[in-house]
Structure formats: C-alpha cells, structure tokens
Amino acid sequence: MRSIALRGLWGRKLRTILTAFAIVLGIATISGTFVLTDSITHAFHTIFSSIYRGTDASITGKSAVSTDATQNLPPFDESLLSKVRALPEVKGAIGGVADIANLIGDNGKVISFGGAPHLGFSVDPTQPQFNSLTLVDGAWPGTNEVVVDRSTAHKKHIEVGETIRIEAQGSAAPFKVSGLVRFGSTSLNIGGATLAGFDLKTAQRLFNKEGKLDQIRVSKKPGVSQGQLLSAIQRILPPQTQVKTGVEQADTDASDTNAFTSFLQKFLLSFGFIALFVGAFVIANSLSITITQRTREFATLRTIGASRRQIMRSVLLESFLIGALASIVGLLLGLALAKFLFWLFGVLGFTLPTTGLPFKTRTIVISLAAGVVVTMLASLRPARRATRVPPIAAVREGATIPPGRFARFRPVGSAALAVLGFAALIYGIWGAKGTGNVLAFMGTGAVLVFLGVALFSSQLIRPIAAVLGVPGDRLAGAPGILARENATRNPQRTGSNAGALMIGLTLVTLVTMLATSIRASFFGAVNKIWIADYAVTAQNNFDLIPTAIDRTLRQAPGLHNVMGVRSGEARAFGAKHSLSAIQPGGSHIFRLDWKAGSQATFDTLGTTGAFTDKDFAKKHHLALGSKFRILVPGGQRPEFTIKGIFDPPAGGSPFGAITIGASTFDKLYTPPRNQFVFFNIDGGVSKANTAKLDQILKGYPNAKVQDRDQFKKNQASFLKNILNILYVLLALSVIVSLFGIVNTLVLTIFERTRELGMLRAVGMTRWQVRWMIGLESVVTALIGAVIGIVLGIVLSVLLIVRVDFLVVAWPVLSLIVFALVAVVAGLVAAIFPAQRAARLNVLQALQYE
What we know:
The protein is α+β, with helices and mostly antiparallel strands. Helix content is 55%, strand content 16%. The mean pLDDT is 86.
C-alpha cells in the first residue's frame, strides 16, 4: 500500500502541489515569525550585554511605582559617585545620564528612521572598560560637542567637524560633531535608532539633570567577590536607589523588549495558525474530491483483498507526505518571509534591530510538527470516507461513496457547534475573569463558530447562489446558469470552499469594523470636548515633549490659555494608574460633562486638587471632597482632594485616571514632560496664525502644530499603520483559500471531463467554457464573502458593544470593496482552471472515465 500511495502522489503532481500550498503559507508564517522574533531578541540581548560590558554592579534610581523602563526611574544626586569610588572594593566607577536627543537634519526636521528611538547619553572615554562605543573617526566629545553613530552620519552626510542642531529638553541648540562611533559588534544592526553621545556636564545640562545621575556603573578590584561588592555599595545607598549586578541590570533593561518580542511572536503566530486553519479546510476538501474521483481505484483494491484499515493507512500516508513536504518548503520559505516582515515593519514605521536570521532547532521542530499534524487531522474525515467504498463499485460506472451513519445529523450538529461557539465567545467577552481566561474562551469560541458556520454553510449554498448567480445569468446566459448550477451541485464541497474564504474575510471585516469604530469614537470625542484652537504634539504623535514648549508659547503675544497636559504614572488604591497634570486655562480648552464640579475645576486645582472620571470614582468610592494619596516614582506620597468628577465621552479623553495641577507634578517628576499642549490664539485657526506658530516653535523641530482636524488625523494615523499590517497578515489566509478554490476547480474539471466534452460537442465555445468556470469561481467566492462579512459584522458588534468607550461605526465603502475584491479574486482563481477546461480535447474528453 505504501508504493501505491507514493505512485498515486507522483501521478497527481499538480493536485499534490496545489493541495500542499495551503500548508506552505501557514508554515512559512510560523517559521518566519520565529526567525524574526529570535533575531530581534538576540539583537536586544547583544545591545544590553554590550552596554554593561565590564560592569560588575549597576546603581540606578528606584521607582516606587515599579516602572520597568530605565528612562522612567528617578535620577539621584551625583555626589553618590565619589562615595562609590572611595569604597575599597571598587576598582572603577562611571556615572551617566541618558534621555531623548533629537538630531536635526539640514532640512530642519528631526532625523528619524522607521519610528526607532533617538538616544542621547553621556560618554566617558577615560574609562574604556565601560564603553560600549567604538570611535571610528574623529575624537571623543568635549563641552558642547557630540559624537554621532556612523550609520546615521552616512545616511545624512554628517561629517566630523561640522555643526548639527540637537533638541532635548529645550529648544534645539548647535553642537560640533567631534567624532563618529559604532555601537557593539560590526554585525549588529540597531535598527533605525540614532545615537548622540556627550560629555557628562553637557548631557546633564541638555537633559535638565544638572547635579543628577541616572546610573553609576562599577567594576570590582581583583579578589573581591560579587557579593562583597554589592554589600559594600548597599551600605552607602541613599533612599530610592538600588544596586544590581551588571547581568541583572542587562536583564532588567531587556525585560520591556522581551515582553514586546513575546507579544509580537504570539501576535504573528496567531496569523500563521489562522492560515493553517484555513489550509485544513482546503486539504480536507481537496482530499474528499480526490477520494470521490478514485472510488473505482479504492473499490478495485478492496476487491483484490485490501482491508478498510489498509485503505485508510494509504490515504493517511499520502496526507503525511503532503504535510511533511509542504512543511519543509514552508520552513525554508519562512526565511524569506522574515526578511519581508523586517522590511514591512520598517516601511510602516517600526524599524527593528536585527543580528541576521537565526534558524533554531525549536523553529524547525514546531514548524514541521504543526504542518504534519494539521494535515493529518484534516485528512482524517476523507480517509474514513475512503474506507466506505464498497468493492462492487469497481464494476459500476458512476458509483458514489455511501454517506456515513451520522450524515443526517450534520445540519443540526453544525448549527449546535456554532451556537456553542457564540456562547463561549459571549462568556469570554462578558463573563470570564482574567486575561488568560478571556482569551481562552474567545479563541475557543471563535474556532467553534468558524467550524460550525463552515459546516452549516452547505445548507445556505442554494439560496445564496440563487441570488448571487442572477447577474451571471443575465451577463453570460447559458454559461452563467450552468455556473450557478455547478456551484450548487455539491453544496458540501462549495460550502467547504466558501468556508475557507469566509474565515479570512470574517477576520478582515472584524478588524475593519473595530478600526472604524475606534476612529469614529475618537473623532466624536475630540469633536465633543475640544474648544481649543491649536494643539502641539511630537512629530511622531506619541513621544513626550519638553515643558519648555509651553513656556515659549506662553510668552508669545496673542496666545491665550496655554495648557500643557503632563503625563506620568503613579500608584493609588493598590494599583498603578495613569496620571496627568494640567496648567490653568483648561476651562477655555475643553468642555467636559461634569457630574461633580464644573468647568472652573480646570483652573482651580491648585497644589492639592484633583479630578477623575466617573468610573474611577465609582470603583474607589470617591466623591467631591474625598481625600486620597498617591505614590510617585520618587517615593513621595502627596495627598489630594477630589474637586471634580466627569463623564468621558465614548472615545476617551486626554486625561489619565487621575489629573492634578502641573505645579505639583513638576516637583514630583524629573524632568516633567508634556503629552500635549493646547492653546487659543487671537483670530482663531488660520493660515497666517499657523505660519506664525511654526515660526514661534522653530527652535523645537520635534514639535508639530495642528488644528483640530489635523490633530484627529495625526492621532489616528498609527491605527492606519496597524490596520495595514493586519491586512497584509490576513491576506495570507485569503490567499490560501483562493488556492483552495483553484484546487477544487482543477479537481472538478477532472471529475467533469466527459461533461465538458459533451458541452463542447453540442456547441459550447472555448470562451463560454471559460465564462462558466470563471462565474462558478466568482459565485463560490461571493458566497464566502457574504457569509464572512455577515459573520465579521456580528462578531465585531459583540466586541464593540462590550467596550464602553466605543460606538458602532459602519465601514460601508470597505465592505463593498471586500465584496468586489472577492469577485476579482474569484476571477483570478479561475484563470488557470478555465484555461485548462477550455483546452480539453473533445474526443478524448468523451472517452474519459
């Protein structure tokens, strides 16, 4: 039976390749995801290992709010450095500060590559054992000088000795480029990050950290143990500082990036498994058609003594070989996909570091196992079906495989499966507690819904095709009628094909509905509460900007009610919450729906006032006049009094869970930063005023002036990039389903060879054959589109209704485009099968068995 299975595969090469392709794309996504995330993880590990080269101990500030990101840790007094150096266990110590430093190009704009960070830091070449930079040209920086990474310098034609402007916590200032540096090893690609190194005093002044340090790195003397060094340092540490080994500090700094790569890995893998899930439909459908066409072959084998078990083993062996070969091809194709994903993220503004394309054993094992297991599972039902071929079918032309014992329960069972899936989804959305449980119920529910709807869709094929086939009837006449009837001839087959496409279009519709609703909710919120003329944000819309900007605007003539919205984190009521702070003038900037307090609350917070939203107040039993304390990163525990409670609109507000006065915030956070700056201007929004504001903020190239409509568009641009990534990833499952349509059409052409020959014999032209096959493909694709779009709308509405800050919005144009894309995809999928059908030799087709 093994040789029969192998000869069968070799004799049906085209069918085997088309069937295997469904697995290839899914495995390529899984393999490419592992390669991509392994490369990113290794790159970050190399970066942080390089930073702490020669470091036995690292001293940093200690955040009382447990913020992981090093840049958010409070700085400490630099006098600690001399105390550390005086310890007998210490061989050397170096203090440093770091922050954002924007390099300004010749065009007056911030130099940025793919949204990567702009890193500024102090360097001390007198202690090279701590230095992770290599000087490749020029000299180390002195006062008002900077060294720039060689990659940025080459891309922007920056030469040693020239002057470049740099913006940090104040307006952009000129610095002489004293040298060019390289970070880490020559093979390390740090993505699009820009590096700017200064001497310590210059960096402290630039980052508003005079007399402060962010970190001290220490090396121990020979013979001193790690424990002795840490104990000695621990004895002299002031409050709100901490010491770790160099390895521990590298791991801490890498924790945020590890969390990011872990999320990215799971996110991308989910699309790989979606493609495999769709591929399972394609494989099951293709094998079912093939087994139907081989009825006489299996019957003959049964006649000469083959048992049911041997028939089943033969089919499963074919499936195993298809899955194994497809998985190997997909595994190798994953390398190319990883390169494509690096390029795609860069194009969409997410340039990532890399150290090549690592190919780990885990990647190989999981990819091969996933492909083979999915293929084998998808082939179980067709294999069992093959065992039902009776020996008598060997001598009967046109014999069919008898249905299984439970075939009559299929409609009820599939409907029950879909209902069970919806129940699991609804419980996951409304009833489950904890992120893990929510995702588990939602994921299980989604799979059950897809399976149930796909299996039940065979009951919907005839009524849907009767409607969707009308245009084809009118357009093509007899070929259109035949196409519609062909689509309904075997509802289970058409339903399975449409089901594969349905999954992809359901997910596309779901993300489009969610994105449209998020955008509409945000736009509605801005329209409802915004009464300012202008806002200022960072050029990339999400970085924090220096408070020097609102001071500059406040001094400009004709500007009123300049209000910076600070952003930070604090602990309150036993948990970490977002904290915002505002300056007086907000009553002329925003209009809120106050449940307690009034518009005057904006301007009367003082040093101890605060306001919050109604949900936060209800959860923590706060009312007007309630007093509470917060814990800030520096360890202080200031007390505040509730002076207002507001009801935020759907779409949210620019305020955190708690909002306090900016004067208090600035004393608690070093350095304070704004998320936004809002203000009014004499004459309101106009081209002249916009030009005037651009001139006022000329010294802040990273600042972007925008009116309300521009603000909405810019803030929503990030969502557009995310949506584009999702479309690309979901396109894989759609492509897999289209190959399923191609495969089914090719296989049914074999099945209908004599029928096509008879149609040609009675006068059907080649073009009419092409029309018939093409319209059949379009009807199948449209059935999948209709079911997928409807199901996507239902699922998205369930999610949107559950989220309080979202309103349902209808992307009508996008839904129409999806239907049109399904038509085009159906036509494209039919090109090869239609050509093959049109080229059939009439006489040979009439004699085909």
